[in-house]
Amino acid sequence: MEAQKHFNEKVEEQSSLPLFTLGIASQLSEIPAHSIRQYIDEGLIIPFKLESKRHLFSQKDIERLKLIRSYIRDRGLNFSGVRALMAMIPCWSIRECSEDDRSSCGAYTDNFQPCWEASEKGRLCRNENCRDCAVYHSMDSETGIKSVLKTLL
User: pTM value?
Assistant: First the structure.
């Protein structure tokens, strides 16, 4: 049982490594590079950024790109709709924020911005890299918003 847990942790760690350039991410996700750049500009995805300003993507990022594409192409959402859907992830519940933190956090008060896009962050999130946060990774191509909510309710 311990070996299986260790294996799962290693697989999870590997899927988070930023390995793919924009061009490779475009090929793997079957999304044009200019569309991926739009997703980045719209705050729908947070790629790893090198000092040279080049973006790198992990396997998890590829899955997230596919999810965003399916929301746009298959579900008919626009960027604002995808952003609003992602804003519905109750980060305060996942992060177990106090009432004080919630009251001063834009992620709690803004209905249309996901927490990683909030201008004012609560105490727990202020100095954290959103790309590494459990909230950012809570929704992927396998789980939608309802799956996230079911685990919290």
Answer: 0.80
Q: Is 111 exposed, middle or buried (0-12, 13-18, 19+ CB in 10 A)?
A: exposed
If asked whether residues 144 and 112 sit together in one domain, one would say yes
Handedness of CA 134, 76, 40, 10 (dihedral sign): positive
At residue 134, what are phi and psi to the nearest 5 degrees? Answer: -60, -30
Q: Do the Cβ atoms of 122 and 97 come closer than 8 Å?
A: yes
| CATH number, domain containing residue 32 | 1.10.1660.10
pLDDT in tens, 96-138: 888 888 888 888 888 788 888 888 888 888 888 888 888 887 7
- Cα 148 to the center of its chain, rounded Å: 13
Q: Give the torsion through C-alpha atoms of 124, 127, 131, 133, to 10 deg.
A: -20
Into how many domains does the chain fold? 2
